[in-house]
Amino acid sequence: MRIVNQKNLTVFDIPRVDFNAVGGGNDVIAATKEIVDRVKNEGVSAINFYSEKFDRCVPDNLKVSQSEIDDAYSSVDDELKESISESIKRVKSVSETSLPETKTCKLSVDAEVEIRYIPMQRAGLYVPGGKAVYPSSVIMNAAPAIAAGVKSVAVFSPPQSEFCVDGKTGVHPTILATCKMLGVTEVYAIGGAAAISAMAYGVDLQVDSQGSSDASDIVPSKIKPVNVITGPGNIFVSSSKKLVSDKVAIDSEAGPTEIIIVANEFANPDFVAADLIGQAEHDEMASSVLVTESAEFADRVNAALDRLIPLAMSSERVKIALSNSGSGIFVVDSIDRAIDFANEYAGEHLEIHIGNADNNDEQMFEDSLAAASKIYNAGAIFIGEYSPVPLGDYIAGSNHVLPTNGTAKYSSGLGVHNFLKPVELIKYKKAGLKEVQNKIRVFADEEALPSHADAVDIRFK
């Protein structure tokens, strides 16, 4: 990886992926808008067109039948089911713990305001396909939605040609098995921007039971629009979410994944290198960043990368990602300046490895935790050498759907809050309103809206 000296700088040169150089920018926005509009206006025919174009598979039906979900569950081996089950348990537990409580502010004897959190009625969850299968994304999206109390949850995932046989929809069996384990029964074989459009605007479908006597196998007449869309995806998914954000709530416009690691000279270079590689494995546009105060440590990490990259299954993809404009090793004046860099970068995943000369694990954890108290911009913060990002990807209990590309400065990771609406209940009785009657008149007259005050006064005539 390139090593960049940023010592003695007042303002850091923050690395970012050049989306125009990798096929992003205005061309992507225009292409995405065309897909979103066609699906909105043409429905199933447009979805089938894009399924054939991008997925090389056109399912007989877009909705996955319950029998296909059940068959998929039976086909998944027990060890994977156990891992999925443990992840579901942990993410549900954290989600339930983070549920906000209804609170009441009593302003006087007969005047109070209650803040109540009401779940969205319907959520659309996107689970990507492509380079890998992501049962973890099903969990990360569905578990907080269910914990929040959303009654209608629909999963959308692209069909994959190898599974699009014998009348099946092509959604990966592991995705379907995970849906079953979560209790999600509404699943559609639609991918990319087409899926986002279908969630936002709804799609009329043809009813076709294909001769089945199972009522759950009958395709619904319509994909109903959702209130909120969540889930990760490629740049087309991200762009399409932005395009429909005036119609529905979205979690974020997440782009390619990223990691930033703050490490001092006593950190383990092999651990750091492995974590940089692990993030680069996702995508050629992924960003892997190390910030350290030690040029010598930077060299040791590069030596570890040289040893470990050839061992990676996707070594060519990793090499491309580690060489792009968003990746690099940055040497700064001190760990405090490294923390400043991390706050300015506002990364999706932030690991903190603050080691010590005695190589004491407990002290490293405490020192890394202390450094984390100075972080105010990050999607998720991973403390010490034994809280690596893959832990959060799968089974820590935290959520892996996180803000990218600097958006952690003003947004947060996916959670129950994305599926809840805070609503205030104004609960005043006669005496409570009487107490503030005159003050309402003063406000109304000042703003030249006297009928506002008249609406109060009429109650006391």
Short description:
This protein is of the alpha/beta class and 461 residues long.
Structure overview:
By secondary structure, the chain is α/β, with parallel strands linked by helices. It folds into 3 domains: 3-17 and 256-397, 3-Layer(aba) Sandwich (Rossmann fold); 26-250, Rossmann fold (3-Layer(aba) Sandwich); 429-460, no CATH class. 41% of the residues lie in helices and 16% in strands. The chain has 17 helices and 16 strands. It has helices at residues 26-42, 44-55, 66-75, 78-97, 135-148, 173-182, 192-201, 235-243, 269-280, 295-308, 315-323, 335-345, 361-372, 389-394, 430-435, 437-446, 450-457; strands at residues 3-5, 103-108, 111-119, 122-126, 152-157, 186-189, 203-204, 222-223, 228-230, 249-250, 258-263, 287-292, 328-331, 349-353, 380-383, 420-428. The strands form 4 sheets. It has a 6-stranded parallel sheet, with helices on both faces. It has a 5-stranded parallel sheet with strand order 6-5-4-9-10, with helices on both faces. Helix 1 crosses helix 8 (235-243), helix 3 (66-75) crosses helix 6 and helix 5 (135-148) packs parallel to helix 6 (173-182). The N and C termini lie far apart (79 Å).
The CATH topology label of the largest domain is Rossmann fold
How much helical structure, as a percent, in the residues? 40-55%
Shape: globular
Number of helices: 17
Rounded mean pLDDT score: 93
- Overall structural class, as computed from helix and strand content, comes to alpha/beta
Name given to the CATH architecture of the largest domain: 3-Layer(aba) Sandwich
Number of strands: 16
The biggest sheet amounts to: 6 strands, parallel
- CATH homologous superfamily descriptor of the largest domain: Nitrogenase molybdenum iron protein domain
List low-confidence stretches: 207-213
Distance between the termini: 79 Å
Beta percentage is 15-25%
Q: Give the radius of gyration.
A: 26 Å
CATH C-level class of the largest domain: Alpha Beta
